[in-house]
Amino acid sequence: xxxxxxxxxxxxxxxxxxxxxxxxxxxxxxxxxxxxxxxxxxxxxxxxxxxxxxxxxxxxxxxxxxxxxxxxxxxxxxxxx
Length: 81
Prior knowledge:
This protein is an alpha+beta fold. The protein is built from 3 helices and 4 strands. The protein has one domain. Strands 2-1-3-4 form a 4-stranded mixed sheet, with helices on one face.
């Protein structure tokens, strides 16, 4: 398991991308967990988002969200440098 955890709801729009494959290939320190529900009632239907170490990261599109997730991962990893 990675030192940065990215949680994604299975019903979220961001799952239209292979977010698990993309992020885990790009960042070996990351573990992507796809859950049936993150109990943030309805948020997954409104806009793409993920939790990066329990911090909500959003985007207007899945691609923008992925880019914001990458930035959040880099911020999290900077703590360990």
